[in-house]
Design goal:
The protein has one domain: Alpha-Beta Plaits, CATH 3.30.70. The protein has a 4-stranded antiparallel beta sheet. The protein is built from 4 helices and 4 strands; from the N terminus they run E-H-H-E-E-H-E-H. A hairpin with a 6-residue loop joins strand 2 and strand 3. The two termini are about 25 Å apart. The protein is α+β, with helices and mostly antiparallel strands. The longest helix is centred in the N-terminal third of the chain and has 14 residues.
Length: about 100
């Protein structure tokens, strides 16, 4: 399944209600599972981004739908990167001329 890494910042609204952050993460993890995906990793981080998440799912469309829903709630802003495994990287390199 495709994998995405999201760099996440909490909005002003999200920080005002940060005590519910862990609960919101659990709800998000259940939501992505309902959509056929899985939260592979979550990290609270110091620096430019507040969280880093790693999610797998069945398609880019599912990932985008999930991210749009998360953003619409108003607590987070994301920058998302599509990620490739080492195995996928090896296959890509093999295909080079």
């Amino acid at each position: 399944m495709p994998i995405w890494v999201s760099l996440v910042n909490v909005t002003d609204q999200g920080i005002r209600d940060i005590k519910r952050g862990p609960e919101r993460l659990e709800v998000a993890a259940k939501r992505i599972e309902e959509m056929g995906g899985k939260l592979l990793g979550f990290y609270l981080t110091m620096g430019e981004y507040d969280y880093v998440t790693i999610v797998e799912g069945p398609s880019d469309e599912v990932a985008m739908t999930f991210l749009l829903g998360m953003g619409a709630a108003g607590n987070l802003r994301t920058k998302t990167l599509k990620a490739f495994t080492l195995g996928e990287f090896k296959e890509m390199v093999k295909a080079l001329p």
